[in-house]
């Protein structure tokens, strides 16, 4: 819309300039004058896509009839778009050639035209007003836009840096809290398990204590990895790979050692799937067995891994607890986080209470 208005303004102003020049209306018919003004207005309305047609129309109209509005607008766009230096100098050189042509035409026609374009002072004043000053104005507007854009980009970069700094500080605070609270408590568990193993009166108690110590040390290693991510998130290459389905048997053995009769069932033809899918499947089994320990105790559990043609299904079904059990403390966000993890891969997670009192955790993950 803005360029349509610009075209209309250039058309009206060009027509006004043509009508006001002495000798022009008598020498040229009115349709020709209107056509010249219309060509100037049409070229000005096209300036958003390309201002070169406007410059060409302006050069012809100025040299032939001293119609300056299209050349004035073209000079502004030249300063606005051309690189300062060789390109802008070439444009101004072309303007000098147009002024020379206008001088020759004015000397040939004589009268007021000769006075306007052939006298040195008048020609210089017209050139400054129509070509040089608009080009300088366009170059200034361009420079100002670049300064504003640079300032905006700098402000955005500073905002991103402040946000990154705030996130880094928050990660460091969380890491300190986890180290001071969680790591300390787990270390105490490992130490007490080691002491119990040394003082155990029978082999079964010693094995149980050794298993508790091993699980605690593994938890400390995993916690150390998490703290490393929180403190230095860009040094991922130094961390051990997260567990996958290849580590599932070790997880099941740990649950069996704690008294849960875990049975694994593999269905379908086992095949390699994406690492993210394997990690998520492992976490599904891990969280489900953790909930069995917390809420059901020493009951049987079935772990089923089913390889479908386009998805991997994981089911963990446990039996009903034999007696009411004092539940261990927890944050209550395990299944919520697990559901988010599964849904991020385009899968679904279903949890339900079984008729016999057991519980089912089922996940379907595209693979």
Quickly give the structural class. alpha+beta
Average pLDDT, to the nearest integer?
80
- Written as H for each helix and E for each strand, in order along the chain, the element string is HHHHHHHHHHEHEEHEE
Quantity of strands, as a count: 5
User: Briefly, what CATH class of the domain at 244-367?
Assistant: Alpha Beta
Task: Explain what this protein looks like in three dimensions.
The chain has 367 residues and is α+β, with helices and mostly antiparallel strands. Among the domains are: 2-118, no CATH class; 244-367, Histidine kinase-like ATPase, C-terminal domain (Heat Shock Protein 90, 2-Layer Sandwich). Helices cover 68% and strands 10% of the residues. It is built from 12 helices and 5 strands. It has helices at 2-20, 24-27, 30-45, 52-65, 69-81, 86-109, 111-117, 120-199, 203-231, 248-257, 275-295, 334-344, and strands spanning 261-267, 300-307, 311-318, 348-353, 359-366. Strands 1-2-3-5-4 form a 5-stranded mixed beta sheet. The longest helix has 80 residues, at 120-199. The radius of gyration is 41 Å and the shape is rod-shaped.
Topology (SSEs and partners):
Layout: H1 2-20, H2 24-27, H3 30-45, H4 52-65, H5 69-81, H6 86-109, H7 111-117, H8 120-199, H9 203-231, H10 248-257, E1 261-267, H11 275-295, E2 300-307, E3 311-318, H12 334-344, E4 348-353, E5 359-366
Parallel strand pairs: 1-2
Antiparallel strand pairs: 2-3, 3-5, 4-5
Helix pairs in contact: 1-3, 3-4, 3-5, 4-5, 4-6, 5-8, 6-7, 6-8, 8-9, 11-12
Catalytic activity: ATP + protein L-histidine = ADP + protein N-phospho-L-histidine
Organism: Nonomuraea purpurea
Protein name: histidine kinase
């Amino acid at each position: 819309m803005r360029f349509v208005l610009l075209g209309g303004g250039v058309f009206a102003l060009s027509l006004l300039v043509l009508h006001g020049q002495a000798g022009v209306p008598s020498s040229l018919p009115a349709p020709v004058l209107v056509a010249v003004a219309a060509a100037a207005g049409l070229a000005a309305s096209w300036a958003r896509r390309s201002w070169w047609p406007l410059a060409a129309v302006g050069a012809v109209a100025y040299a032939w009839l001293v119609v300056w509005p299209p050349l004035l607008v073209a000079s502004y766009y030249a300063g606005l778009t051309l690189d300062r230096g060789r390109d802008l100098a070439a444009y101004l050189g072309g303007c000098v050639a147009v002024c020379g042509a206008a001088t020759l035409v004015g000397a040939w026609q004589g009268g007021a035209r000769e006075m306007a374009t052939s006298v040195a002072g008048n020609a210089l004043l017209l050139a400054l007003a129509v070509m040089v000053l608009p080009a300088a104005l366009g170059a200034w507007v361009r420079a100002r836009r670049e300064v504003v854009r640079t300032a905006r980009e700098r402000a955005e970069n500073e905002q991103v840096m402040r946000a990154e700094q705030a996130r880094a500080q928050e990660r460091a605070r969380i890491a300190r809290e986890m180290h001071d609270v969680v790591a300390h408590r787990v270390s105490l568990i490992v130490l007490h398990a080691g002491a119990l193993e040394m003082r155990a009166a029978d082999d079964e108690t010693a094995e149980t204590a050794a298993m508790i110590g091993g699980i605690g040390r593994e938890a400390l290693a995993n916690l150390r990895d998490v703290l490393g991510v929180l403190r230095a998130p860009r040094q991922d290459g130094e961390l051990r790979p997260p567990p996958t389905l290849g580590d599932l048997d070790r997880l099941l053995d740990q649950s069996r050692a704690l008294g849960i009769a875990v049975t694994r069932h593999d269905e379908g033809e086992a095949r390699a799937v994406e690492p993210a899918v394997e990690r998520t499947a492992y976490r599904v089994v891990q969280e489900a067995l953790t909930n069995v320990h917390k809420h059901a105790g020493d009951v049987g559990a079935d772990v089923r891994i089913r390889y479908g043609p386009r998805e991997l299904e994981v089911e963990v079904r446990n039996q009903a607890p034999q007696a009411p059990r004092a539940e261990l403390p927890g944050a209550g966000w395990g299944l919520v986080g697990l559901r988010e993890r599964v849904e991020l891969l385009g899968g679904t997670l279903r949890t339900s209470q079984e008729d016999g009192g057991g519980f089912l955790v089922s996940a379907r993950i595209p693979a």
